């Protein structure tokens, strides 16, 4: 990764003038906070990224922060990255765009790690974590925003810790700065447990961060990560915290826009033996392929994490630990990033269906109330993508852009991708009828719900039905 050394300003090496202006601007902000630590320990990339090295961050400075016991702020190590913003202004890494826009990607990363008793020097593993995040940003060109979540699925320090994912927030101390190459803000990484990540996905990251600020052991006002924390905020205060999350979903909606699921749908408007008709789909036989555009769009919806201000957030970054269940996006449009609008495959026309039957396993079924209350009642959409084959079911509310289901024809399909448009009135009715799915207890399967006047049927079935493709 790099070597660790005390540094006094920017190291002088042949290609770089001493104190390049972008670097100097960040050092200046750090000196304002830590005037007595002019020579902090620093991890440096041995071979700089612009010389072909693997690590995009040229430097990561590590400071000792004494905290403030009166405000419940623990003593901790404070890490600051250098390299996501434009340090040099000469196009070697980032395109120079002048002083008025964002410098490079427009942000640097910070991290606050609780200092353990007896520690005299900061652990260096956070520097590798920050390099990993920076590699993702450089490779994907997706920038991060406050409130974003990162599904990591691995203890951040490779220990046995429960802290296995991250949320991002504004650093509470380092102010955004203006450099000759543009503006730079500072996003702090906050380590979280799986249950906290899931709550952030189902509600939003900012809400969970706010709850954590009020719990000293979960981070306190400055959201300091404690890798030895064994309890989630829900363990510490089960009723209050869960209540706040449920209330938040109710009032603000959910940022979870899709899940990989066990699900199928049947077109009840056609006789099942009508397999030869090129417009029909027969679940259980070889399903027809989705067009590339449709596949790309569903993939984008599921790949994305939280989005604020239409900025992308974060798919799982650890290639070894792919996240198959916790997905992704906040757009009130079904357009993918890569296509300006849905362009149906020329050979697949939209089919309007009279009557449909949706089948979900228990895990997917329990998300239906969240889909309806947290997404559709807030003018958003929600996708179930089958883990078997190409089947997908997207619920949309009136007014979602790019949908091919309409109020006139609320059930419509492109190949095996079904869209269902539900009016607010019907959503309220369904929520009343599906109330028992809200409970966190196991319900007896199979469960069947039917709305004959709407020609819609939903079944919640045992996993075995989906695991055996012949059924």
From TrEMBL:
The alphabetized UniProt keywords are:
Acetylation, Cytoplasm, Developmental protein, Isopeptide bond, Nucleus, Phosphoprotein, Ubl conjugation
Where the protein is mainly located, per its record?
cytoplasm
Q: What residue range is the signal peptide?
A: none
Task: Give me the stretches of Basic and acidic residues compositional bias.
Answer: 322-334
| InterPro entries the UniProt entry points to | SUFU-like_domain, SUFU_C, SUFU_C_sf, SUFU_N, Suppressor_of_fused, Suppressor_of_fused_euk
Q: Where is this region: Disordered?
A: 267-295, 309-341
Top-level taxon in the UniProt lineage: Eukaryota
Does Acetylation count among this protein's keywords? yes
GO cellular component terms, semicolon-separated: cilium; cytosol; nucleus
List locations, semicolon-separated.
Cytoplasm; Nucleus
Q: Where is the Suppressor of fused-like domain?
A: 53-229
Residue ranges constituting the Suppressor of fused C-terminal domain according to the UniProt record: 243-460
Keyword Phosphoprotein annotated: yes
What does the record list as GO biological process? negative regulation of smoothened signaling pathway; negative regulation of transcription by RNA polymerase II; signal transduction
**Residue spans of biased composition, Polar residues class:** 309-321
List, alphabetically, the SUPFAM superfamilies matched. Answer: Suppressor of Fused, N-terminal domain
The similarity comment for this entry is: Belongs to the SUFU family.
| Official protein name in the record | Suppressor of fused homolog
Q: Which species is this UniProt entry from?
A: Betta splendens (Siamese fighting fish)
């Amino acid at each position: 990764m790099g070597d660790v050394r005390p540094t006094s300003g920017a190291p002088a090496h042949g290609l770089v003038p001493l104190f390049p202006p972008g670097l100097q601007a960040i050092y200046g902000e750090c000196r304002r906070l830590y005037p007595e630590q002019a020579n902090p320990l620093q991890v440096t990339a041995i071979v700089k990224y612009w010389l072909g090295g693997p690590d995009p961050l040229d430097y990561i400075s590590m400071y000792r922060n004494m905290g403030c016991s009166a405000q419940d702020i623990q003593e901790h190590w404070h890490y600051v990255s250098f390299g996501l913003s434009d340090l040099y202004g000469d196009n070697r890494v980032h395109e120079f765009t002048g002083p008025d826009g964002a410098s490079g990607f427009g942000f640097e990363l910070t991290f606050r790690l609780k200092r353990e008793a007896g520690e005299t020097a900061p652990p260096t593993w956070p520097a590798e974590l920050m390099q990993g995040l920076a590699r993702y940003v450089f490779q994907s060109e997706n920038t991060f925003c406050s409130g974003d979540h990162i599904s990591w699925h691995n203890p951040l320090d490779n220990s046995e810790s429960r802290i296995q994912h991250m949320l991002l927030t504004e650093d509470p101390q380092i102010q955004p700065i203006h450099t000759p190459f543009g503006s730079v803000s500072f996003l702090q990484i906050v380590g979280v447990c799986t249950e906290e990540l899931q709550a952030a996905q189902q509600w939003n990251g900012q809400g969970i961060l706010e709850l954590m600020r009020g719990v000293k052991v979960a981070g306190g006002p400055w959201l300091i990560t404690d890798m030895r924390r064994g309890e989630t905020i829900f363990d510490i205060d089960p009723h209050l915290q869960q209540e706040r999350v449920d209330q938040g979903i109710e009032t603000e909606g959910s940022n979870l826009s899709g899940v990989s699921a066990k699900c199928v749908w049947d077109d009840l408007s056609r006789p099942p033996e009508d397999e030869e008709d090129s417009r029909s789909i027969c679940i259980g036989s070889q399903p027809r392929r989705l067009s590339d555009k449709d596949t790309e769009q569903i993939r984008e919806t599921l790949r994305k994490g939280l989005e604020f201000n239409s900025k992308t957030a974060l798919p799982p970054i650890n290639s070894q630990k792919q996240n198959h269940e916790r997905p992704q996006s906040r757009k009130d449009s079904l357009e993918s990033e890569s296509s300006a609008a849905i362009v149906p495959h020329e050979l697949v026309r939209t089919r309007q269906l009279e009557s449909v039957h949706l089948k979900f396993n228990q895990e997917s079924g329990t998300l239906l109330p969240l889909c309806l209350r947290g997404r559709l009642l807030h003018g958003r959409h929600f996708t179930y993508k089958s883990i078997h084959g190409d089947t997908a079911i997207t619920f949309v509310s009136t007014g979602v852009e790019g949908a091919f289901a309409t109020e006139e024809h609320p059930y419509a399909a492109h190949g095996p991708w079904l869209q269902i448009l539900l009016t607010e009135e019907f959503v309220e009715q369904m929520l009343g009828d599906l109330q028992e799915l809200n409970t966190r207890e196991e319900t007896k399967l199979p469960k069947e719900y039917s709305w004959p006047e709407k020609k819609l049927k939903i079944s919640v079935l045992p996993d075995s039905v989906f695991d055996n493709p012949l059924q």
